[in-house]
Amino acid sequence: QVHLAGSGGGSVRAGGSLRLSCTASDHTPAANYMGWYRQAPGKERERVAGIYFGGGGSPYYGDSVKGRFTLSQDYAQNTVYLQMDSLKPEDTATYYCASSSSRTRWLTRPPEVWGQGTQVTVSS
Predict the structure, then answer these.
(1) Partners of residue 88 on adjacent β-strands
(2) Strand partners for 112
(3) pLDDT band at residue 118 under the 50/70/90 scheme
(4) What share of the chain is helix, strand, coil (3-state, %, to 5)?
(5) Sign of CA dihedral 12, 42, 31, 35
(6) Maximum Cα–Cα distance for the chain, whole Å?
(7) In this structure, are residues 86 and 15 in contact, taking their beta carbons and an 8 Å threshold?
(8) pLDDT tens by residue, 9-32
(9) Neighbours of 75 (CB within 10 A)
(10) Could you give the 3-state DSSP secondary structure of residue 29?
């Protein structure tokens, strides 16, 4: 069973930037597609962004983060990064690293693997 270790996050003012990291313990089919969900208090969990680990295809970005968040990866380190720029107070949430076996599954079903959450707080 692959394990995902998420890190990063913190508190910033609106307009600031943060970077999240997600490292997979191994390359397995369940970690073919990696990314993040987020959940704000009182709201449902929201799909944020995802990418095929190792490349291939275009990354997925949720409508609320398009143009502000950018995915990248370090294949040698089994790590995917989420650069979050132009942060807004509504981006405040707990961010969960997660993975699925494919982009289709990522978009249609809950992830197969979840990492621990990390808090992002954006003040106005």
Answers:
(1) none
(2) none
(3) very high
(4) 10, 50, 35
(5) negative
(6) 40
(7) yes
(8) 999 999 999 999 999 998 888 899
(9) 11
(10) helix
| SS3 assignment, position 64 | coil
State the Cα–Cα distance between residues 37 and 14, nearest whole angstrom: 20
Separation of first and last alpha carbons in the chain: 40
Q: Which two tokens stand for residue 25?
A: 């313990």
- The mean pLDDT value for 113-120 works out to 96
User: For 85-106, what is each residue's pLDDT tens digit?
Assistant: 999 999 999 999 999 999 999 9
For residue 55, pLDDT beyond 80: no
What is the DSSP track for 72-108?
EEEGGGTEEEEEE-S--GGG-EEEEEEEESSHHHHHH
